[in-house]
Amino acid sequence: MSGADTHYRALERLYGSAPINAKFESSLEILGEGSARISFDVTEASYHAAGAAHGTIYFKMLDDAAFYAANTLATDRFLLTTSFNLHFTKPVRAGKVVAEGRWISGRRRVLVAEARLVDSSGEEIGRGTGTFMRSRIALSSLPGYVPAEG
Question: Where is the Thioesterase domain (predicted)?
């Protein structure tokens, strides 16, 4: 496995190890440099009072997809979200939603990435753009970020 592939698989394990992700039926797939996809099952447990997914679900999926797309380019440090703009285009109810993240620019201290949410019919339901900054936290210091044994 290449160094990049090792990093990508370790990022996927890091996502799976985050305590917040135990609350959601979701999975991360790193597709390559600057590209990440999160599949997510929206259930009634995430609804607001009017019977559709609460905006926090949109933010979480968009932020995570953009974050992991950007973190594919930072192999040494954990990134932190410094800003995120989102646009809701359609409410979503129960079903599979996919967040597609894509790195846009920056490689040194600050990286910019975008993500879009697509529902099970292939229609875009939201999009966002985030700015991510390298932290002082070494990826290798995080218990979830472990290289594959092999």
Answer: 51-124
